[in-house]
Amino acid sequence: MQATSATLDKPALATRHGAGRPRTLLAGLVLIALLIGAGALLPKWLTFLLTMAASHGLVSLGIVVLMRCGVVSFGQGMVFALGGYTAALLFNRLGMTDALGMALAGGLVAALAALLVARLIAGYRGIFFAMLTLALSMVLYGVLVKTDAVGGSDGFNMGRATLLGQALPDASVGYLLYAVTIGLSGVLALAARVYFDSTRGLVSLAVRENELRVEYLGGSVRQAVAANFVIAAFLGGVGGALTVMSLGHIDPNFSYWTSSGEFVFVAILAGYHSVLAVFIASTLLEIVRSFSSLYFPNTWQLALGIFLLLAIRFLPGGIGSLWAGGKIKTSNGGRP
Amino acid sequence: MNQLITILIDGITYASWLFIVALGLTLVFGVLKILNIAHGSFYAVGAYAAASFVSWFGAMQFAPSWSLVAMLLAAVAVAALVAPLCERSLLRPFYGRDEVLLVLVTYALFLILEDVTKLIWGVNPYYVTDPYALFGNVDIGEQSYVGYDFMLVAVAVVVGVAVWWGLNRTRQGKLVLAVIHSEEVASSMGVNVSRVYMLAFGVGIFLAALGGALTAPMISVQPGVSVGVIIVSFAVVIIGGLGSIPGAAIGALIVGLARSLAVHTAPVAELFSVYIVMAVVLMFRPEGLFQRIQARKI
């Protein structure tokens, strides 16, 4: 496998796609710095919108990681909720208040939970993969709703996080959480890009194209899917933790199937070619959501549905295919 | 003993309407290969339409027993008006695409229908009480049960038999079976596949709307009724095997009994009992209880 990717896929991708190389990473870092810098000048509602877009985008990025090996999880809400509840409980019960610590802990707990079921889940494909992950997230939802210790169906509030031992002042708390969210999501997004272009990441793409071929070449399909499932969970967990820190509240709806649906929505809208596209799609969703709920409070889902249909109809490869799609295709046009 | 009977009766009545709804879902999947998230929305539209029809019939001074006819007409109206519209305009452009993508298309349809129902019927709850009292009460042991629930069981049996008969004993049904078996061969034999699609989708939506209409008297019809139904009926068809009618019946019974067992013995587990069953079935028999294992095509 290694030899194949090294001789065939990798140079082709690395030179033509350009991602994963220092220049792309540098551009990414500059973009993150620019966004953090610009945040100081933006109005509060916009920084909050972007914070939500980034933290939710991270969760959808997890789905994109899975899409790259050909499966779609309809239960991403589960890891989103696990990360969120971990952060909120650490804050309220154990007194761990550091924003970065909570975010990483949320990711780790979600990844650990995913690790428990990864081997099993990795054996499923298509609709069965989607349904099994959906079932698991709904089990978590059912448990959370009935667990009074974590507030039952009402959930509970959490206070203000600290950053590196410093309390966040009233005036700038929104901005600082924005900066943390953008910084952390950005770094993880870059890490995802590096992973996508690594040998392991390319094996995932090969799994998507043709599983049998991968097995014959000596790669393990099951292992690739399991690894991606755990990575997706980590990203979802961090996203959940970041979300709850900015929202200040968590409830079982984090794990409900409609939140998972929105994450899938963003992932499909973005396509699996580009990491940046995921965050653009997530921002688009947040914008459509905020503006429609402001101007058409009773029809925002209608607008969202039509938007989604148009996207699937006219951009089948997702937003990312506008600039990255054609370059990733193999010589036979991407067909197995 | 009394509790056991209560659990059984509750489970079976719950299973009855669930079977009607899930049968539609499984039929649509069997023919069109679409796992329809919007199925729950058609259920909701059926419930709303039933509320309107029953109140119109009431306003026209019909006897209360006519409310049953009103409910049936409501389901027919939904199937006749909404199903062709959705199938032709929204689903048709996406046929043949990846099945997970099709799930997302129906998710979009679900979002759209959610708001359309709100636009038509508003956000206030509707109550349809007439039909519920029609059948009186039935005493079994020391407990008294509502007769309407038993009527539901009868309707479910009739619907199940009718769909089975329609598929296996009529010319149209055999065409549908041919399309399920192989769309390509069927169309090369001169079967109008696109008409079969529409027929199957129409019947599927009729069953969803009928399930909604029959449930309307038992609940308050308000925004959000669709959301809960979707995943439960998914659980039923996954347990029974996608596309299988006996599977939908057994799946509905398993889900109904699991839920009523949880409600009566461990209320904490009510919400997730269904999904645990679904997850366990998926782990040991991913194709469901009634689906033959298919060889993967290379």
Mean pLDDT of chain A: 81
Oligomer: heterodimer
Gap between N and C termini of chain A, in Å?
A: 17 Å
Helix and strand content put the structural class of chain B at mainly alpha
Biggest sheet character of chain B: 2 strands, antiparallel
Low-confidence stretches of chain A: 1-19, 327-336
Report the largest inter-chain contact.
A-B, 41 and 46 residues
- CA gyration radius of chain A, whole angstroms: 20 Å
Structural class of chain A: mainly alpha
> Low-confidence stretches of chain B at least 5 residues in length (pLDDT < 50)?
none
**Looking across the biggest beta sheet of chain A, what order are the strands in?**
1-4
**SSE order of chain A, one letter for each helix or strand:** HHHHHHEEEHHHHEHHHH
Number of strands of chain A: 4
- Could you give the count of β-strands of chain B? 2
Helix count of chain B equals 12
Beta-strand content estimate of chain B: under 5%
Distance between the termini of chain B: 54 Å
- Principal-axis shape of chain A equals globular
Task: Explain this structure.
The complex is a heterodimer of chains A (336) and B (298). Chain A has 336 residues and is mainly α. Chain A has one domain. Chain A contains 14 helices and four strands. Chain A has helices at 2-17, 22-39, 44-67, 76-94, 99-121, 126-146, 173-197, 199-209, 211-216, 221-247, 257-270, 275-295, 300-314, 325-328, and strands at 156-157, 162-163, 166-167, 249-250. In chain A, the strands form two sheets. In chain A, strands 1-4 form a two-stranded antiparallel sheet. Chain A has a two-stranded antiparallel sheet with strand order 2-3. In chain A, helix 3 runs antiparallel to helix 10 and helix 11 crosses helix 12 (275-295). The longest helix of chain A is centred in the last third of the chain and has 27 residues, at 221-247. The model of chain A is unreliable at 1-19 and 327-336 (pLDDT under 50). With 298 residues, chain B is mainly alpha-helical. Chain B has a domain at 24-223. Helix content of chain B is 74%, strand content 3%. Chain B contains twelve helices and two strands, in the order αααααββααααααα. Chain B has helices spanning 2-32, 39-59, 66-91, 99-121, 130-133, 147-169, 171-181, 183-188, 193-215, 225-240, 245-265, 270-284, and strands at residues 137-140, 143-146. Chain B has a two-stranded antiparallel ribbon. In chain B, a hairpin with a 2-residue loop joins strand 1 and strand 2. In chain B, helix 2 runs antiparallel to helix 3, helix 2 (39-59) crosses helix 9 and helix 11 (245-265) packs across helix 12 (270-284). The chains are: A mainly alpha (336), B mainly alpha (298). Chains A and B meet through helix 6, helix 11 and helix 13 of A and helix 4, helix 10 and helix 12 of B.
